[in-house]
Amino acid sequence: QVQLVESGGDLVQAGGSLRLSCAASGVAFSAVFMSWYRQAPGKQRELVAFITSVGNTQYAGFAKGRFTISRDTAKNTVSLQMNNLTPEDTALYFCQADTGSRITQRYYWGQGTQVTVSP
Predict the structure, then answer these.
(1) Which of 16, 27, 70, 92 falls between 20 and 30 A from 86, CA-CA?
(2) pLDDT value at position 2?
(3) Would strands 91-98 and 113-118 be described as parallel, antiparallel, or unpaired?
(4) Cα–Cα distance list, 113 to 10, 28, 31, 60, 95 (Å)
């Protein structure tokens, strides 16, 4: 079965950096789109960034210039480098795998990793 396990969340001061990682198993990693989402308390889950199977990337406006998504197909991992963090970045960060399947389950989620940014 597909498993996504996030790690790297922590408490950091404003202006600091964090690198989140998501390890995927049970999926043809080289063929799936991978995304990072986040959900702050009382808010809806929102897309942070995604990376296609060939490495093309897209970012939400708040992430452009500060966050970088990357994937390592050899290690079946996707990472999110986050720089210049602000308290508004405080959220639970999730990775998502999009298999593109129309027959079996298409989307898979990890359990999330907490990022807390103090002023």
Answers:
(1) 70
(2) 92
(3) antiparallel
(4) 8, 23, 24, 19, 9
Q: How many CB atoms lie within 10 A of CB 74?
A: 8
- The letter for the amino acid at 38 is R
Q: Give 23-69 pLDDT, tens digit per residue.
A: 999 988 888 999 999 999 999 999 999 999 999 999 999 999 999 99
In whole angstroms, what is the distance from residue 117 CA to residue 91 CA?
9
pLDDT in tens, 95-110: 999 998 888 889 999 9
